Amino acid sequence: MEGHQEPNYPPPLTPSSLISLPFLLPPQNPLFTPSSASTAPSSSSQLISPPLLEPQQHQVLPDIDWVSLLSGSPAAGFDGQEINNYKPLVENNNVGASAENINEADREGKGANSKRKGGGRMRKPASRPRFAFQTRSADDILDDGYRWRKYGQKAVKNNLYPRSYYRCTHHTCNVKKQVQRLSKDTSIVVTTYEGTHNHPCEKLMETLTPLLKQMQFLSRF
DNA sequence: CGATTTTGACCAGCGC
DNA sequence: GCGCTGGTCAAAATCG
């Protein structure tokens, strides 16, 4: 049923283009806060590096295309490859996963596809890109520009905090994400995205539309 | 009143 | 086969 290729939204942006997108910058969106920004207030969110790296290596890659990354686009470079020492916690069926909490969440994917009341495992084995990262934040929910609806919450083993399950509210979009706070370090939130958005980011379009109109206007001179 | 969250039940995969 | 665990469903509750 999932043979056809959906278009990936939003289109890849360069880091410089992010400057024009205030909602993608802190504190609204902690994803784009470099870990080196130690001057940030403790109350604001901060993207931290995955536990795959040595402590000294903890840094955020400045050239990462974060927007496409969140949309699951291969352009982000997380199609199984490592970029500049930065590794996702989870990528495409557990390749490179190391955080124990994510490992447990990622054990499945054996192809069960039945659909009944009460769920069961209905994940595709390999077709859904997955990506996990950690943020240091007081809030569990990141403002990534998409709208999410919570469809479940579950207490997980070896963790004091429950894992929350969200689905993209767009009718045709089947992207999911899991959010969990680490019991080891309660200030850290692990967010796992699964799937590819097949629609534009609402906030992105909201911000881009006036910009594009202005550019069109100026280009006439 | 529609959208979203909460929450308990259900189900499948895995290890033993 | 059985129990444990994680993921999902869906009814009820809550919110805006």
Automatic annotation (TrEMBL):
InterPro entries cross-referenced by the UniProt entry: WRKY_dom (IPR003657), WRKY_dom_sf (IPR036576), WRKY_plant (IPR044810)
Keyword DNA-binding: yes
Primary site of residence: nucleus
Compartment list: Nucleus
Domain (WRKY): residue spans on this chain: 137-202
Region (Disordered): 1-50, 99-128
Pfam families found in the cross-reference section: WRKY
Keyword tags: DNA-binding, Nucleus, Transcription, Transcription regulation
PROSITE patterns reported in the protein's UniProt record: WRKY
Ranges annotated as biased composition (Low complexity): 30-50
Name recorded for this polypeptide: Probable WRKY transcription factor 56
Biased composition (Basic residues): 113-127
Membrane-spanning segments: none
